Amino acid sequence: MTAKTTPLRELPADLDRERLPRHVAAIMDGNGRWAKSRGLPRIMGHQRGVDALKNLLRCCDDWGVKALTAYAFSTENWGRPLEEVDFLMTLFERVLRQQLQEMMAENVRIRFVGNLKTLPASLQAEIDRSMEMTAENSGIEFTVATNYGGRQEILEACRSIATQVRDGKLQPEDIDEALFKRHLYTANIGDPDLLIRTSGEMRISNFLLWQVAYAELYVTETLWPDFDRAEFHRALSAYQKRDRRFGKV
Question: Which among 47, 62, 70 is positioned nearest to 12, based on CA atoms?
């Protein structure tokens, strides 16, 4: 069966199901540039970016990738124009409200990580509702990093552990990688196997600094709104050609 006639839900024949990444993370970069190149306002790029994310989530589910984490809004993004930030907050809230029933129907479990307490109250309410309603779903694990910063996450974990040491609940020798990981936002989420960054930028941008220690990195010049199944296929093909030694010979 040729690639053109392969059903969308079917894993492409050149990919090995046994060697798929369990967990894919994505830095969704290039929405603004995509819009600018078409003479559109930046907010139109963000709207198209939501469609690209929905398509990737469905593709992961179809092809057997068990978890997807998306970098939706960083702690540094508050420095963008107020109009754009306000639009993004409204967009997040609207998408959650509109897509919740669809996520329930598709058995998606959604989680949010980051400093959620500083988000608009109405958005926090939608986040809480979506996590509560999908908590028992057993399908793909979809994590959305919102108001997230890797350095902030590590600092908060250090403060929490230091407080427990000060209060006599922990001894310094009790601190190991497993304990530290339990204090991260992503405590109950496995580390990514593959980190995808779109738009060609060669940096991690303060995303999952602890968690991507041994993730395979894949960078594409494609802007996020144009990242489709064909692009994801190429990312997975590249991943399966890697020799993952985890520092060993």
Answer: 62
